[in-house]
């Protein structure tokens, strides 16, 4: 195989991967859209969006729900059709490499002394600088949830697991 044909083949493979990602996103989006569209009307209205978000433990106000709809609703009819939903997801979709980079940057910020671990003290110090006022108990709960191996500190893998639980 010549270098030229190998380069050509590699670019086709990259295109296939990109196409596959978009196809997977569209299929997943259809499934989520259909779950949100409880009355199967072909659009998601404010009540359906609010109820669906509450299933995920969110409790948006009606103003927040209408703000979300207005952000996505391109034809201005007050509801979200599938094409609007898919367009929003495509705009919001981030490649795994981008997510990994952001996670590494955030971990480095939390790991103040650069030793490869986030201690309870580092976590509390950074959160305080960010304006988060947490009780000792809340910080302890955060550490306990993230520190899977129980060594009293959060390594990068534990951090990724808690921040991006579906993996990267």
TrEMBL record:
What PROSITE patterns does this protein map onto? EF_HAND_1, EF_HAND_2
Does the keyword section mention Transport?
A: no
Any one Gene Ontology cellular component term annotated for this protein? myosin II complex
| Keywords, ordered alphabetically | Calcium, Muscle protein, Repeat
- Coiled-coil intervals: none
Q: What Pfam families would the database entry show? A: EF-hand_7 (PF13499)
Question: Which InterPro entries does this UniProt record tie to the protein?
Answer: CALM/Myosin/TropC-like, EF-hand-dom_pair, EF_Hand_1_Ca_BS, EF_hand_dom
**Which GO molecular function terms does the record list?**
calcium ion binding
Residues covered by the EF-hand domain: 24-59, 60-95, 98-133, 134-168
Q: What is this protein called?
A: Calmodulin-beta-like
> Whose protein is this, by species?
Crassostrea virginica
* Lineage of producing organism: Eukaryota, Metazoa, Spiralia, Lophotrochozoa, Mollusca
